[in-house]
Amino acid sequence: MAERTAPVVSMDAITKTFPGVRALDAVRLDLHAGEVTALVGENGAGKSTTVKILTGIYRPDGGTIRIDGEPVTFDSVNAASDAGITAIHQETVLFDELSVAENIFIGHAPRTPLGFIDRAEMQREAAKLLQSIGAPFDPRTRLKDLGIANRHLVAIARALSVDARVVIMDEPTAALSQKEITELYELIETLKSQGKAILFISHKFDEIFRIADRYTVFRDGAFVGDGRIDDINEDDLVRMMVGRSIDHIFPERNSTATEEVLQVTGYNHPTEFADINFKLKRGEILGFYGLVGAGRSEFMQSLIGITKPSKGVCKINGKIRVIRSPADAVSNGIVYVPEDRGKQGAIIGLPIFQNVTLPSISRTSRNGFLRLAEEFALAREYTSRLDLRAASLDQDVGNLSGGNQQKVVIAKWLATKPQVIILDEPTKGIDIGSKAAVHEFMAELAAEGLSVIMVSSEIPEVIGMSDRAIVMRDGRIVAELEDDDLTPETLVRHAAGISTEPQLERA
Amino acid sequence: MTDTAAQPRHIPDRLHGSLHRTLRSWEALLLLVAVAIFILNSFASPYFLNAWNLSDATFNFTEKAMIAFAMALLIISGEIDLSVASTIALTSTAMGLALQYGAGTPELVVVGLTVGLLCGAFNAVFVTILGLPSIVVTIGTMSLFRGISYIILGDGAFRGYPDSFSWFGQGYVWWVITVEMVLFAIIAIIYGILLHKTNFGRAVYAIGNNSTGALFSGIRVQRVKFMLFLLTGLMSGVAAICLTSRLGSTRPSIAQGMELEVVTMVVLGGVNILGGSGSIPGVVIAAFVMGLVTFGLGLLNVPGIVMSIFIGLLLIGVIAIPRIVAMIANKRSRP
User: Fold this and answer.
1) Which of A109, A398, B21, B310 could bridge A105 with an S-S bond, Cβ 3.0-4.6 Å?
2) Cβ pair B197:A369 closer than 8 A
3) Does one domain contain both A133 and A195?
4) Are residues A290 and A203 located together in one domain of the fold?
5) Read out DSSP for A179-239?
6) Is the CB of B216 less than 8 angstroms away from the CB of A344?
7) Partner B contacted by A333 (CB < 8 A)
8) Backbone CA torsion sign across B203, B209, B215, B221
9) Are residues A353 and A467 in the same domain?
10) pLDDT per position as a tens digit, A70-122
11) What is residue B61's DSSP assignment?
12) Among A357, A382, A417, which residue terminates a domain?
C-alpha cells in the first residue's frame, strides 16, 4: 500500500483569477494511483477551473503542479495529455460529422509507415475500446447519429485511448440512465485496477460514497479539507461543502390546485412522440419522468413551437392557442427553461442584464427603444431573488459558473411573468446547495399560482416536488401517477416498461 | 432561498464607469490611428490641409460607408452579403433603363431604392426561408446581379442623366459640405440608434452571439435576418443613386470589387467577422481611416495597386496588434 500514499499528481497553492473573480485561492489537490478522488463543492467552488488547469486549458497565476514529485507546467492542452492527464468534460468537445473511431483517435490516430492514418487499425482499436466499455454501436457510426448517453461513452473511450495515468471525470453520470451509471461504475473499477488515478466530480452524494476512495472539498475557490471517504459521513461532507448543514427535506407543499390552466390534446410528431394528452392546474407542479430519449424534451420543445412538424391542440385557460414559435409561447404565458444551458439557455457573449431582459424586452422598452435603467432594475429584481453571484450585472454571462448561469436563465424566464413554466432538468449538474434553493424556489412559484412542468430524471426530485407525475416511454405517456401510486418503484417500472421490480442503485 | 444565501450579495450594475470603458475600447484605438494618419498626412503633403481637398476626399468612403452600416448589422447577426457591389450595378442599370423610358429624377430615385430592396429581398428569401448559408447565396447573386447588367449593357453605357439628378453625387449643401456627407451622417446616426438604442439592435446582438438561444428566448430570428438583408439591399440602392449621380453614367463594371472594401471597413471598425460584437461608431471611424489613407497616398501620387497593399496591411495590422500585445502580456504574467 506504500505506493498509494505518494500522489501521482499534486496541486499545491494553485491560484487563478479572472476579471472581477478569484476563481481559485491557493487550493491543493492530490490524486493517487489506483484510487478515485472525489472533488466536492458547490457551483462556483472552482471545480471546473481546477479541471481546466489540470488539462492545460488555463494557466494558473500561482502555485505548483507536481507529477511524481517533479514540478511541471502545462503550456498547452497537448502538454497535459502528454503527461498522461485526460479529461471527460461536462460538455466534452466531440465532432458531429466524424465517425466514432475518428472521434476517439483524433490527434493520436495510429499511422501507417508512410505517415497516413491507418484506418483499419483505428477501426479495430476503436471496436476493442468500445467493447471493453460495453458500448453497443459500431465505430463507423457518425457521431451525430448517436444519443447523448452514447456520446458519453465515446468520450470515455476517447479518454481511455490515450493510455492516460490520470482520468478526470467531470459530471460523468449527468446524462446517463441508471443502467448506464452502473456500467460506468464497473468501468471505473477496471480503471482503478489498472492503477489509474481518477478525479471524479459529481453533485450526487450516493455516487461519491459508492465510488470514491478519497475526497477533497472546495468552497468559494478555497480549499476546505480532504481525507478518506471511509472516515466521513454524508452530513459532515455537506457541512464542509456549504459551511453549514442542509436538511435534505423537500419543501412542504399543500396543493389546492383546481383551476385548469393548460390542456394539451393529441400532440403527435412523426418520429419523436405520439398521442400526448394531459392537463395542468394553476399552482400545480407536474413532473415528467422517463429515461433519456423518452421524448420528453422533444415534446416540450414542440409545445413552445420549436420542434416541427407536430400536430395537436393546446388550450390555455380554456381557449385554443396556436403556438408556432417561442415568441408566440412567451406571449401566451408559456416559457421553457431548456436543459442545454450553453446552447439554448444563456446567450454567452451578452451581459447578464441583457440575458435576463431578452424575452421581456417589450416591457422594459418604450416604442421599440431600449431603456437601460428599466433593464437593470428588472434584471436586479429577478437575479437577486435567485441569489445570483456575479461581479456586476454587465459582466458577460459566459464568465459565470454553471449554476449561476442557470440562475440567469431561470431569472430570464420568470421576468416574463409566465403562467406556465417548463423546467427541463432544472437541477442537472448543479450542487446540492443550489439544488435545495431551486426546489424551494419552485415551491414558492407554485404557491404564487404559477403552474410548473418539471422534466426530471432524478427520482427523489420527481417524488419530492411533484403533485402529479407523468411517465413517458418511447415517445408516449405510459402512466400518470399521484399520491400513493407515486413511488420510486412505480416510476422506474413504467419508465423501463418492465413488470418486475427493477434493481435500484442506492447508497 | 434562505437555505443557501446567508446574505443576498449586492451586485453593482457595472464594474467600470463609462469613461473607463470608452478608453479601453476598440473605437478609442482606432481613433488614435485616425489622428495619427491625419497628422502624418498633413506633414507629408502641403495640399492635405485644404478644405476643398478634404471635402473631395470624403467621396472615397461616403458611398461605401452607407452600405457598411447596414453590413455591420448583418455581420454582427452572423450573416454576410457579398452581392452589394453587384446590387449597385443592377440598380444603376435599372435606373439607366428607366431613363431610356423618360424617367425624371424622382422616378429614378424610386427605381433605385426599389431595385436595391428587391435584390436584398432575393438574398433574404434564400437565406432565411430556405436556410441556405448567406456567404454561398450572396456569392451566387454577386455573379447573377452583375451578369444581368452585362447582358443589358454589353460594352455600352447609359448616359444623359438629368441635371437635377446630379445633386446627389455632386451637390453641396453648404460651403464644402457635400450632399453625400450629409447623407452619410444621417445614415450613420440612424443605424447607430437602430443598433445601439432599440430592441431590434439588441436582437441583432443576441442572434449573432447565439442564434439558437435567441430563438428559444422568443426572438423571431429569421424575421430579423430578413429585415437586415432588406436594409443592406436598400443601402446598396442609396449608394447606387449617389454613385450613378456622381459618375453621371452607368457601366456594368460600376462599383466592381466594392463589396470587399465594404467588408474591410466593417471589420476594421471592430465588428467581429464571426458575429456577435461591433459598433457603428467603430465603423464611422474606420470609414474615415480608410478615406484618409487613400486620400493621403493619392496626394503622394501612390498608384492604386500600392494603395490596396496599404489598406490590406492596415487591416491585418490593426487586427493583429491587440492580439500580439495580449500574447506578450500573457507570457509575462506566467509563473
Assistant:
1) A109
2) yes
3) yes
4) no
5) HHHHHHHHHHHHHHHTT-EEEEE-S-HHHHHHH-SEEEEEETTEEEEEEEGGG--HHHHHH
6) yes
7) no
8) positive
9) no
10) 898 888 888 888 888 888 765 566 788 888 998 888 877 888 888 888 888 88
11) T
12) A417
* Strand bridging mode A197-201 / A222-228: unpaired
Across A313-324, b (16+ Cβ under 10 Å) vs e yields ebebeeeebebe
**B 167-226 residues inside an 8 A Cβ radius of A:** 197-203, 205-206, 208-210, 212-220
ipTM of this predicted complex?
Answer: 0.85
CB contact under 8 A, A392 and B210: no
Number of structural domains found in chain A: 3
Query: Nearest 5°: phi and psi at B230?
Result: -60, -45
- pLDDT by residue (tens digit) across A497-507? 764 444 444 43
C-alpha distances in Å from residue B51, one per residue of A257, A454, B44, B47, B54: 77, 69, 16, 10, 5
Q: Which residue has the cell 414542440?
A: A302
Q: Are residues A271 and A366 in the same domain?
A: no
- Residue of A326, A392, A440 with shortest CB distance to B218: A326
The answer to whether residue A253 sits within a structural domain is no
Contact A365 B220 (CB under 8 A): no
Interchain contact, A358 vs B202, CB within 8 Å:
yes
**Contact B217/A73, CB-based, under 8 Å?**
no
Whether A207 is in a domain gets the answer: yes
Residue A153 resides in a domain:
yes
Residue A105 forms contact with B (CB below 8 Å): no
B50-318 fold: ABC transporter involved in vitamin B12 uptake, BtuC (1.10.3470)
Instruction: Report which secondary-structure segment, H or E, holds A8.
Output: none
Which cell goes with B271?
A: 465588428
Residue A21 has pLDDT above 70, yes or no: no
- pLDDT tens-digit series, residues A244-263: 544 456 777 776 667 899 99
Rama region for A331: left / alpha / beta (φ>0; ψ in -120 to 50; rest): alpha
**What residues have CB less than 8 Å from A154, skipping those under 6 apart?**
A94, A100, A103, A104, A135, A143, A146
**Residues on chain A touching B209 (C-beta within 8 angstroms):** 347-350
Q: Which amino acid is at A505?
A: E
Exposed e or buried b per residue across A17-52, where buried means at least 16 C-beta atoms within 10 angstroms of its C-beta: eeeebebbbebebbbbbbbbbbbbbbbbbbbbbbbb
Residues A473-481 have a mean pLDDT of 90
* Helix (H/G/I), strand (E/B), else coil: B180: helix
